[in-house]
Write a structure and sequence with these properties.
The complex is a heterodimer of chains A (244) and B (186). Chain A is built from 9 helices and 11 strands. With 244 residues, chain A is α/β, with parallel strands linked by helices. The longest helix of chain B is centred in the C-terminal third of the chain and has 17 residues. In chain B, 45% of the residues lie in helices and 20% in strands. A 7-stranded parallel β-sheet of chain B has the order 4-3-2-5-6-1-7, with helices on both faces. In chain B, strand 2, helix 3 and strand 3 form a beta-alpha-beta unit. Classes of the chains: A alpha/beta (244), B alpha/beta (186).
């Protein structure tokens, strides 16, 4: 029997059970969903639990100023806003672009390599074990072709895996999009996909979560209803007789 | 059983179990008061009261008249929001947008258990009849089965309230599936 892979406990109530013990260490996981489905909150909670367990986290913000993001975050009973900013490294990617002279709309292969090198440099320097990229969709926007997107995600994922870092890449979807990523390439390369959605039932809008795939672990593929609370994300199974 | 026998029965319940209580409409509110009194005062438990019949604010007013200590009673109120009456601010009340949001009822209950309650707890659902007005029987059966199982796993009491005249055969079936005992009060 193959040896079970070491797991990275997300610490999120119910999710580690769904994932049969957590995300296999080193996996690159897409957190896909449309606006307001809880992608950012889930990703931050993943980093917060890591910080509590002594694992350094890195949050790479592509579209939003990280200071503003933290201000708008839910207040946790178990981790203060100040600690979030103290124990997790937040980087606004426009600052990296600026530093590297990448202030252009489209990146070539050299630019991609430069960007990956810099992210890895930070991961190495601070011994980062958990990474969140919010969002991969915004980075892909500058990569122009499917080949370059593939190259970027594959290389970055591999490099992060070598350092034992588990990565969540937020993938923004349009509300009624089919598939799990905007360019279609991301979902094929990622080791895992967690789909977050809004499910409308008789006029009620429920937040949902489903693990579509996760390499290296058995997992549930059922749909769960999710609530964002001050004690963290809470999940219960979606009642099936409500129709889907 | 008559009402006095019901009061004796309440005293005799000691271990966490799942049971349904069928009241006449005339004894319903007195029944609620005595149930809450039995669990909070006599058994010294916390109670999570899931209200879908009348807003929690009105239940609180009623219980205050009876002089009940409300400190250990938490409410998951599923009816005030759809009546646009959820502005009443009380730290012991959590509002659910609608009685059709059954999963949210489970989550809010679990949230209260984890965040506020240290010792033993009883969950009281008022009532299966009003939840049946807002939900079809299939999803309601699934909800009660899942919810009762979840609460049992936490070693808590799970109590379903119902009103005799409003009980359909389907409602009776749900109660018999999820309850260890059905108590009928004359």
């Amino acid at each position: 029997m193959a040896e079970a892979r070491k797991k990275c406990l997300t610490g999120i109530r119910g999710l580690d059970t769904i994932l049969n013990g957590g995300i296999p260490v080193g996996n690159t996981v897409l957190i896909s969903g449309s606006a307001g489905t809880g992608k950012t909150t889930l990703s931050i909670e993943f980093l917060v639990h890591g910080a509590i367990m002594g694992e350094k986290g890195l949050y790479i913000s592509v579209t939003e100023d990280s200071g503003k993001l933290v201000e708008n975050l839910i207040t946790y009973d178990f981790f203060s806003r100040e600690n979030i900013q103290k124990d997790i490294i937040f980087i606004d990617i426009p600052e990296i672009y600026e530093k590297l002279g990448l202030n252009k709309l489209q990146f070539n292969i050299e630019d991609i390599n430069l960007l990956i090198e810099n992210i890895i440099k930070i991961v190495k320097e601070f011994n980062i074990k958990r990474v969140v990229i919010d969002s991969i969709t915004s980075i892909c926007y500058r990569l122009e072709t499917e080949e370059k997107i593939m190259e970027f995600i594959l290389r970055l994922g591999k490099a992060l895996q070598e350092f034992g870092a588990t990565t969540l890449m937020i993938s923004e979807l349009l509300p009624f999009a089919k598939g799990y990523s905007q360019y279609g390439v991301e979902e094929a390369i990622a080791d895992g996909i967690i789909l977050m959605g809004n499910y409308e039932r008789r006029g009620d809008l429920l937040r949902t979560l489903r693990v579509i795939k996760m390499r290296g672990t058995a997992h549930s593929r059922a749909t769960y209803v999710l609530e964002l609370t001050s004690i963290g994300i809470m999940l219960v199974p979606l009642l099936k007789n409500g129709g889907e | 059983m008559n009402y006095d026998e019901f009061l004796i029965k309440l005293k005799s319940i000691t271990d966490p179990e799942s049971f349904s209580v069928i009241f006449n409409i005339t004894s319903f509110f007195e029944g609620i008061k005595d149930l809450l009194n039995a669990f909070t005062k006599e058994k010294n438990l916390s109670v999570i009261y899931i209200s879908s019949t009348i807003p929690s604010k009105n239940i609180i007013s009623l219980l205050e008249v009876y002089g009940l200590d409300l400190n250990n009673i938490y409410f998951v109120d599923t009816i005030s929001s759809i009546m646009m009456a959820s502005e009443y601010n009380n730290p012991n009340i959590l509002y659910v947008e609608s009685p059709t949001m059954l999963e949210t009822i489970m989550i809010k209950t679990e949230y209260i258990m984890e965040k506020y309650i240290k010792g033993d707890v009883a969950i009281i659902i008022d009532s299966i009849n009003t939840l049946a007005v807002h939900n079809d029987t299939k999803i309601l059966s699934e909800f009660f089965h899942l919810f009762a199982t979840l609460i049992r796993s936490k070693n808590a009491f799970f109590i379903i309230l119902s009103i005799r005249d409003q009980n359909t055969q389907e409602i009776k079936n749900i109660m018999s599936i999820v309850s260890d005992e059905i108590i009928e009060v004359d």
